[in-house]
Amino acid sequence: MAFMIPIIASASTATLISTGIAVATAYAQVKQGEATKKAYYSQAEYKRLEGRVEAVKAKEEGIKSLEATRKALASVNASARAGGLEPTIGTPVDIGTFNVIKPGTTDFFTARDNAKLALSSANAQAEDLRFAGRQAKKQGYISALGTLGSSFATMAGTGGPGTTSTGMTGTGGYSTTGPYQASAYTGYRT
User: Fold this and answer.
1) What fold, for 8-158?
2) Which of 67, 133, 144, 172 could cross-link 40 (Cys pair, CB 3.0–4.6 Å)?
């Protein structure tokens, strides 16, 4: 950072103001990236909770299908008894098994699978949103670094006061001795 002191000391007011604005812009870019990350994380939490709600709804549907199966099976048994048949053998068992229990359990297992899918889908969407948030934060930092780098390059590129104000020739206001010799700055004002 010590190398910046001669550059800052020789910079014009307009250059210093534009550099100050660039620093403020960079700060705003970092804050915007962090705010965007926070927004994505909030959306991710909402998606995760939404998935849990869907899973609970699917489980409730599975429970309802089991209750309906139990009622239908009781109805088959009652009808068989009322008709004078033994409900535990023969046709009533076949009707109960193939027309009531099998579809009811299929509905239950489908609902259970739907609950698992709702959770996994919501978790995947939430992770995608969290990733997007991390990327937004990184982009904020990258944009800020680009803004600062561009501003400091512009400030360094202005050189210094030149030959008329210092009396030095061909060096752009820099010393001809030391680590920053004039030969290193041949691309600047001469």
Assistant:
1) Helix Hairpins (1.10.287)
2) 133
Q: How far apart are CA 143 and CA 149, in angstroms?
A: 10
pTM: 0.62
186, pLDDT greater than 60? no
Model confidence pLDDT, tens digit, residues 21-80: 988 999 999 999 999 999 999 999 999 999 999 999 999 999 999 999 999 888 888 888
Cα 6 to Cα 184: distance, rounded to the nearest angstrom:
15
The ranges assigned to domains in the chain are 8-158, 160-190
Q: Is 180 helix (H, G, I), strand (E, B) or coil?
A: coil
**Gap between the Cα atoms of 169 and 20, Å rounded:** 30
